[in-house]
Amino acid sequence: MQTSPSRTAHWQSLDVHHHMHPFTDHVELANEKPMVIERAEGVYIYDSEGRQLLDGMAGLWCVNVGYGREEIVDAVARQMRQLPFYNTFFKTTTPAALELAHKLSTLTPEGIDYFFFSNSGSEANDTNIRLAQSYWQLLGRPERKVIISRNNAYHGSTIAAASLTGMASMHDIPACPIDGIVHIANPDWYACAQDMTEDEYGLQTAQALEAKVLELGAENIAAFFAEPIQGAGGVIVAPKTYWPEIQRICRKYDILLVVDEVITGFGRTGAWFGAQTFGIQPDLMTLAKGLSSGYLPISASGVSERVAKVLRSKPGRFPHGYTYSGHPAAAAAALKNIEIMERERLVQQVGERTGPCFQNALARLLDHPMVGHVRGHGLMACVVFSPDKTRRAAFNPLGGFATKVRNHCFANGLVTRAVGDGLVFAPPLVITEAQIGELVHKLRKSLDEVLAHGV
Ligand code: PMP
């Protein structure tokens, strides 16, 4: 048998020669070589050299019940033996997809009772665009098709979801953004509003929606898409004045409110969904990631009675779907994942204990000379660095310092991700208070090391 280092070198060589990575600069990667992640247990991942890292990102904001859940493996194996696949296109259905749709209806906000399955968050957002536009079309209002999204939003990587996304780098390809999707300001109080209270700023940014509606004409608008907390954009938590005003505007102008809960869903904010944490009543929801804790790919569009009634009562086919919509093995994984979350009361645990513990432990980093801002909710957070805290100054180049701290975190056995001048965290929901202590200790140590080596 080969020894570990040569196994690692073998995999790294295969990676260089045959593998194209998402969201990666391949020139940079060829020089640095990827870390090969071989196994995982609980909140820890292990690389091919046997190094243990605390996974402060739950995979990619998704492994909510933690790694190594044999029960999910068994549930999937049982399902695959019985029925590995069947489609739901042609007046057929499968028990696993039905049980999952029913289970979801008991957890999602009041009125969200129907579920359309896809395989990824991006696909579920594409589906939601089509559901929203079809709704208006079926009501005889086809001109109501413009979608409003927000700056700095992340909604996915298909051409439509990337167009919904509000990051300039995602629009830097000829296909994007597609027509009919517009963006408004996002409520990033720390970065944008030194001279205003959070509440004032929350109201002002929410009113950007009303201004856009009046500019384009409500009669042309289908829906407003938003994450309850912007995740990949840097865990931007809206001031408390924001969501009530957004809800008011959507109601006043009869605009469908679509909440993208791909990250905030399934306990991340201390409730089953961010919509419940922030008192939002959506017309459509986007669910993925924590739905199956990433054990198999599956996503869903949650559809309200208002939208479902129209789509289900008019004759004619909704011309949309994926081969693997409602895949039985993925649905079985999701069902078992939810059963574990309920049995272990993980959502309550995040809401009452580990969420507040995590936010308080990170907030104590504000005594560090380089930490300018800490924000988050439940088990998602961003720690923002600044070379001059009183002015909330940014680093030049933006993110240079955060990237160094992130590299030291990796070397110290902690996975995190740099976003602008911040580091974002979203550990598995099973993280204990002691492991939260370990995470914050490793972060502070890494920060001190970067400071000691000179900024
Ligand atoms: N919406 C949000 C809020 C996300 O964070 C993501 C992925 N990070 C997506 C959609 C896209 O999901 P996927 O990568 O599964 O397509």
TrEMBL record:
CDD domains: OAT_like
Pfam families: Aminotran_3
Keyword Transferase: yes
Keywords: Aminotransferase, Pyridoxal phosphate, Transferase
Coiled-coil segments on the chain, per record: none
Molecular-function GO term, any one: transaminase activity
Gene3D superfamilies xref list: Aspartate Aminotransferase, domain 1, Type I PLP-dependent aspartate aminotransferase-like (Major domain)
PROSITE patterns according to UniProt: AA_TRANSFER_CLASS_3 (PS00600)
Cofactor: pyridoxal 5'-phosphate
Entry's family note: Belongs to the class-III pyridoxal-phosphate-dependent aminotransferase family.
PANTHER family for this protein: AMINOTRANSFERASE, AMINOTRANSFERASE CLASS-III
UniProt name for this protein: Aspartate aminotransferase family protein
Originating organism: Verminephrobacter aporrectodeae subsp. tuberculatae
